Amino acid sequence: RESQRMIANRTVQIEEALREQGSNDEAIEILADLANIAGEVGQTEGYGAISQHYINMRKEGRRRAEALADLKALYGVRR
Q1: Tell me, what's the pLDDT at 18?
Q2: Which of 54, 48, 78, 75 is nearest to 66 (CA)?
Q3: What pLDDT, on the 0 to 100 scale, is given for residue 39?
Q4: How high is the mean pLDDT in each 10-residue block of the chain (79 residues)?
Q5: Among 28, 70, 71, 74, which residue's Cβ finds the most Cβ atoms within 10 Å?
């Protein structure tokens, strides 16, 4: 749904925000992690919404794996 440019820009913004918090997550890793979740979404949420939720969880202190697991539980494929 979102353009490649928007996704790239948003991913770099996430990388920068996490660096400000002392994390060294790389944009390519962030993109792979979030694109995997966004690709499973059966609802209206896209990459932008999921990435915002991810950055909010990380700012709250959740670690990468924990935040991704929470996102997958929230936005993953509904069975």
Answers
A1: 94
A2: 54
A3: 57
A4: 90 95 94 79 72 94 95 76
A5: 71
Q: Which residues lie below 8 Å from residue 37, measured CB to CB, with a gap of 6+?
A: 50, 68, 71, 72, 75, 76
pLDDT recorded at residue 40? 55
CA–CA distances in Å: residue 75 to residues 1, 20, 22, 39, 60: 16, 26, 27, 10, 19
Cβ within 8 Å of residue 76, ≥6 positions away = 37, 40, 41
How far apart (Å, rounded) are the C-alpha atoms in residues 47 and 7? 7
Contact 38, 46 (CB under 8 A): yes
- What DSSP state is assigned to residue 42? -
The CA-based dihedral angle spanning residues 67, 10, 30, 70, taken in that order and rounded to the nearest 10 degrees: 20
